[in-house]
Amino acid sequence: MTASTGHAIWLDGALVDARGPHLNVTDRGFQLGDGLFETARARRGIVIELDEHLDRLRAGCQVLGLNLSASDDQLADGIAGLLAAEGLAGSGAAGSDEGQVGDAAIRITVSRGPLERRGLLPPGFEDLVATIVIQAWPYAATAAELLERGVRAVTSTIRRDPASPLSGVKTTSRADYVYARLEAARAQADDALFLTLDGRLSEATAANLFVIAGPTLATPPLSAAILAGTTRTWLLAHAEQLGLTLAEVDLRPAELLAADEAFLTGSVAGIVPLVALDGRPIGPGRPGPRTRALRAAREDWIDAMSMAALLPEPAD
């Protein structure tokens, strides 16, 4: 199969040319950031933790009152069709047209849809059918150099409000996150960490935060205004079998700096070591062995899950 990566997107039920015009300029996702998105990893044409991503997407749609008309099956079929069209669904089976293993990053974006009238909630907004876009790219692994030296972060001046009903919703309104990443870039750092209004650690601009102290793997609770990331959920479920005692607890910057190791987690980037905050080292200031082991375990699990999903159903 010849890959045609970057030539198609899935828009409202059909594959269309990625280079053509797509959205009405009045679409509220463009005008107001009035929408949601999910990013996921796909391997061998299998979207990892797809059910969890779609559950979170639908929960966000309910919070914002978006009319998502597509069913989970339609979205899954749309992703499968797009991955196939882009040459990203290869199973790796020897001697087949799909001899290369497909590895991809997926983004599902949902906006409220186009509305000619101005205003935040003008007449007719309740009847809009959401615009749905699915995109796919070849998976770009985290740079080896970054994994070797680790992420250096700064503390953002933006504070997270745990009382906000949107704190755990993955909206397309990302100005706060862009600003925080600009703060990091201006400080010659890689990322920024948010604090809550009362000074607790929350999350990074596109990742959850974990620290390792002795045998304990700790992460801020949902009440710290964080997104419930899928890799975070996976670690919560697998911590004990990976040899760590899990704790969802409030953390302060001093506890992060005193930790043995720390890392960030995302569905596409995976588990990435965090080694410094505001120019101060976290623990020894270098990626630790347990972080490396957790990253490898997660990657092995992704590969195993994708292979298992391709196995034929057992006969009755």
Could you please describe the fold and organization of this structure?
- By secondary structure, the chain is an alpha+beta fold.
- It has two domains: 8-138, D-amino Acid Aminotransferase, Chain A, domain 1, CATH 3.30.470; 144-302, D-amino Acid Aminotransferase, Chain A, domain 2 (Alpha-Beta Barrel), CATH 3.20.10.10.
- It has helices at 28-32, 50-64, 72-85, 144-149, 175-186, 230-238, 253-257, 289-309; strands at 8-11, 14-17, 35-43, 46-47, 103-111, 131-138, 151-160, 191-196, 201-204, 208-213, 216-219, 245-248, 261-266, 270-277, 280-281.
- Strands 7, 8, 9, 10, 11, 12, 13, 14 and 15 form a nine-stranded mixed beta sheet that branches. The protein has a six-stranded antiparallel beta sheet with strand order 2-1-6-5-3-4.
- The longest helix has 21 residues, at 289-309.
List descriptors:
single chain; 316 residues; alpha+beta; D-amino Acid Aminotransferase, Chain A, domain 1; D-amino Acid Aminotransferase, Chain A, domain 2; 2 domains; 9-stranded mixed beta sheet; 6-stranded antiparallel beta sheet; 15 strands; 28% helix; globular
